[in-house]
Structures are given as structure tokens and as C-alpha cells.
Write a structure and sequence with these properties.
By secondary structure, the chain is mainly alpha-helical. It is 66% helix and 3% strand. It has a 4-stranded mixed beta sheet. The chain has a two-stranded antiparallel sheet with strand order 3-4.
Amino acid sequence: MNNRKLWMWLGATFVLSFAVLLYLGREIYLAAPPVVNVKVEGGRTLYTATEVQKGQRAWLAAGGQQLGTVWGHGSYVAPDWSADWLHREIVAYRDVRAQTMFQRPYAQLTTSQQGSVDALVKRELRENTYDAATNTVSVSPERAEAIATVQAHYTALFGDAPEMAWLRERYAMTANSLPSAEHRKALAGFFFWSSWSASTDRPGEKGLSYTSNWPHEPAIGNTLPSSAAMWSVASIILLLAALAGMVWYHGSRREEPDPKIPERDPLINAVPTPSMKATRKYFFVVIGLMLLQIAMGVVTAHYAVEGNAFFGFPLADFLPYTTSRTIHTQMGIFWIATAWLATGLYIAPLLSGHEPKMQKLGVDVLFYALVAIVVGSTAFGWLGTLQRQGFDFTFWLGAQGLEFTSMGRVWQILLFVGLMLWLLLLGRALWPALKKPGETRGLIAMVFLSATCIGGFYATSLTWGQHTHYSMVEYWRWWLVHLWVEGFFEVFATAVIALLFTRLGLVAASSANRAIVMETIVFLFGGILGTLHHLYWTGTPTSVIAVGAVFSALEVVPLTMLGIEAFANYRRSKAAPWIAAYKWPILCFVAVAFWNCVGAGLLGFAINPPAALYYVQGLNMTPAHGHAALFGVYGMLGIGLMLFCLRGLFERARHADWLLAPAFWGLNIGLAMMVFLSLLPAGIYQAWHSIDTGLWYARSPAIIHSGVMETLVWLRVPGDILFAIGALLLALYALRLLGRPGAKVPAAVGETQSHGGQAQPRGAD
């Protein structure tokens, strides 16, 4: 009955949280800044709404979020184009007004004269002249002159003007990112629109722009809104209260003791079925993709110092920054997801003792389909970028220009179909265990339900089109990225680890059942609505800041308690001699708990409150959190699951465990050095300048290529080397599994009854 009530609470949490998230999506749609025509007062049209929309497509085709950011989301070497346009327009407009008012450049004016110009510029940029009847924004002739100046800058920058070569190198851009003059003009219209949305007052809200005054630009009064400050305080108070409640709960209840540890490994005689053995190739692909991601990470990081070359070699001619970063981010998703998919396919027959007909064929088909998707999406994205294939090719086959969801729509559809096939294979293998009453049925159900959400929610990548409003693109994109990573992946991981521990006899199934459902409630209660903390400044209403601040703080609560679980798991790893065979998978799970606390919890909360994110969005504080959370949590989990599966797929004598110790510590210490010696200090240094001067300055070449920042980039090298060594040792461990031809393999799980109960040997695949 207690379990049934917990499941009811879980269902209620899921339904109500998504109802609120969908309702706020509707509010975002209604409150998003209109895509407007821009006209000079009583005169010509500067940009049509169609051009502005075309400019969005042009930016995404040129690299999009792999080439700088808009409203703070994307990459960090090139500027945030919204902040950059806004500041350039302010500077240009000051000079125009200084000439018309005092017949001198702005820099030559007295303090009082500059004050007069500043007040006029601020008033004009903040005044919302939008006419809903004609969908038009009007600007003065003088402001139109300033806009033309900034447009000329971007036209030259995204073209091949020789005078901009030095700046393109600073931004890690290639010449002729947009060969068409028409597209460059449209791009300028989109950047103007993103800047106008960030600076003009919302209708009926004086002193508050569509992006809640982001980015920080004191020259026109873009400063931290009081609402953001108040909700930040509220989120911190709520976090402390929730942490106190969680500590009280853990302290007040009696911990159930672990069961008596079996005298021998319960899985020692478990024999892989044909479909389980077919997952071997998945894990070797996992390691290959991880090595490719590391290589692309080295290239991408180096571009922050030498924008278009790699130690003097003109690598950008063949592998521009936008492509190397796209591959780096996509491969991280690919190899982690592949490890998890393969784990699901491996453990399903192990848990149920049932091998469905043609299951191996399905596992093989899925494997080759996934390889085709990875290779095809990467190759077409690379060729599309090099050859400037245009908007339609980019959207459908190339790289869409959106971080973590970059591959073309055709590949997204194919991947969704592949995930549905995975779900079918997983479900048909688990079905006997789901039907059979037992202590582990709840855990198995949680694995299957979280897998269903992982597969089903990938459909959110299909919700936006080429003409979707940018605010809504971001809304749906974060449904996929955040809900996958900080929601359903978390649940899947927790349930799989609990199942593995129960199968090994290290955890009682009854207590694991209750714990998993309760943990899932806590994860999803904060995680689903915590999605909104990514959307504070993307043209959303204040309600998004309120809900996002509160629930993103609650996301931290379960993460801080994982240290207790990590200690318990470490203690279990020493409970019996036979457990030494699983030492390194278990230590990977311990590392997951550590990086959950530090990477997702500490570094995540450091940037999640609105008052913090207002100043640091788009700075290196975000990749510090991202690397620690994505690799530290989900990467180490993928590695741990892979090591567990490989333990059952190859004879015990083949495993060179002595390689796993330096591999484990190399990966974890290297990651810590990368984050705490380079990325985090770089983010703090930029944050200082963002608070002191403005975001445009923190992202400018003067800071990005300052001596301090370039030194911090070079400080990544020791950690990167150690990390790469760890990955290579892991690859060597895997290769050694193939080095000695196999001994006889006994009969498969679930296949002992058809021959009078006697196990029949079956050759290795």
C-alpha cells in the first residue's frame, strides 16, 4: 500500500509539473517579442519581418549557437551578438547625436554634453514604438544612420572583407560565413531585432525589456530587475529550507540494514544470450566516439587562442570552429546515449531470463542504424558547413546550428525511430519480468518508464521548424536537453544502478523499490519545472523567472544527499572478496554521486539563481558546470554501466583490471583540473567584467584574448592530457578483451529448458 501511494504521488507530480510547464509555454508564446518590420519615421523600410526571420535562418546556417550566442545560449569565443549589436549601436548613435546636437564627436564633448546625449540615446532605445496594427517599429532618421553603421560592420564581418580578417580570427570565424549579400543584410536585421527585444520596454512595463533587461548594459539602464533579485533570495531561502527538511527526514527514519552479502557472486554463472552478446560492438563504438569527442575538444579549445589554426596549421580551412564544436558536443551526447542504450539491451534478458525471438536481429539492426545516423549526420553537417549549402540543406540534412540538438531534421527523425525500436526491444525482453509479481518489479517498471520517456521525449526535437519564433525554439530545445539530462536520464540511471545492486545482493529489493520511487518524485518535482531556469532571458515573462528560480533551487536538494549514497556504495564495494570484480563499475557510480554534488549541485546552483545568471549567462561559468555535470555524472555513469556489462560479456580472465585504476583516476582528476584550473577561473574573471562594465565587454576580444584568459586556456593542457591518458587506457582495456580468442561460452540465459534442463554450449558471436 505504501508503494502504491508513492506511485500515485509520482504520477501526480509528473502530470501537474508538465501541466504547469505547458501553460508557461503558452505564456512564453504570447509574451515573446514580436517579429517586426523596422521603418524610419515617415520613410523607408530598414528590415521587413520576413527579413528578420530569414536572418535567424541565416545565423543558424552560418553556425548559429556554435558561432557566438543570441540571448546568451551558444558558444563563447565569438560575441553574444545581441549584446554586441546593442553596444555598437549605442556607441554609433552617441556619435550621430553628438554631431547633430554639438557638431563634434561624442568623445570630444564635455561631461554635461555627454550626459545630454546619453539621456537622449537611452530614452530612444528604451521607448517601444511598436505599432501592433502594422506590426512595425519606427526609428528616427538619426538612429537609422547608427543602425546602418552597425549593419555595415556585420556585413563585412560575415563576408570576406580583408579589413575584418583580424577580427574573424579573434572570433574563430572563417571568411564568407554568409556569401550572399542578401543573407548578410537579413542577418543584420535579426541581430537588430534580438538587440531591440533586449533594450526596448515591454508594453505596459516601464524599465523592463522583453528579455528582462538582459544583457547587462548600464548605458541604457539594462540592469538587474528587482523581480530577479527577489526571486533569487526566495530560491536561496527555499533551498536552505528544503535541505533542512531532507536532512531531518534522513535523520528521523531508521535506515534499513543491507541484506546479508552472498558468499559468491550471484552473476558468476549468468550466461549472455545472443542479443546480449550482440551489444559488445556498441561498447567499442562508445569508446571510439568518446575518443573522437576528446580530439574535437582539444581542437575547439585551441581555437580560443589561435582562432583559425592549430599550432600554425590552417586547420580551419578543413575543420572550422563551428564544425569542431558541433562534433564535440554531439559526440558527447552520442557516446553517453549509446552506452545507456546498450546497457538497457544487455540487462533486459538478464533481468527477465527471457530472450525474445529475433531479439539479436533487432539489436544488430539498431546498431547499424545508429552508426549510419552518427556518421551521416556528422558528415553532412561538416560538408554543409564547408560548402555553404544554404538554409534548407542545413535544416534538413546538415547542422541546424542549435547546441546539443544540431543535426539535421532527417537525422532527428531517424534517431527518433531508432529510439522507438530500442524501446520496443527493451520492452519485449522485460515483459515477462513486468508481468510477474516480485520485489524487483517496481524497479524494472521504473527502468522501462524512464526509458519510455527518454525515447518519447526525443520527439520534442521535432517541434520547431525553420520559421519558428526564436523564443519558442529555445523553449522546446530545452525540453529535450534539460528533461533528458536532468530528468529522465537521472531516473533511468538511479533505477538501473539499484537493479544491478539488488541482482548482486548488495541492496534489499524492498527498500530499493521505495527509495527509487521517492527519489524519482524528488528529482522530477524540481527537474521538470527547473527547465525554466534556461529561459529567464529568452523573451519570456517574469513568471518564468519566478517558477524557474524556485524549482531550479529544488533540483539541488537530492543532489546534495547523494554523498550519503556514494559512501554506502563505497562501503558495499568492500563487503565481500568477490565484489572486487565489480570494484571499478561501483567506483564509477561513486564518482557519479561526487560529480552530481559538485558539478550539477554546487556549480549548477552557482549560476542558476536569476541574480547570478543575469551576469554570467554566456560566460565560461556555464561550461565549467556543463563539463563537470555532463561528463562527471552521465559520462562516468555510462562508463560504469559499460564496465559492468563488459564484465558479463567476456570471460573474467580477459579483464586487465590493472588498467582501470589509472584510467579511472586519470579521467576524474583530469576533469577536475580542467574545470577548477581553467574553466571556472575563466568564468569568474569574465563575470567580474560583466558585472563591472557589461556583458558585451566580458565577451569582447579584449577579454577573451587577454593575457589572463589565454593563460587560463593553456592551463587546461595538464588536465586535458591526464584526461586523454585516462580515456586511452580505457580504450586499451577494451581492446585487450578482443586480444585473446574466446574459450567455450555456455548456454544462454533463458535457454536451458528446451534440452531437458541441461545447458547447451553456444559459440561466441
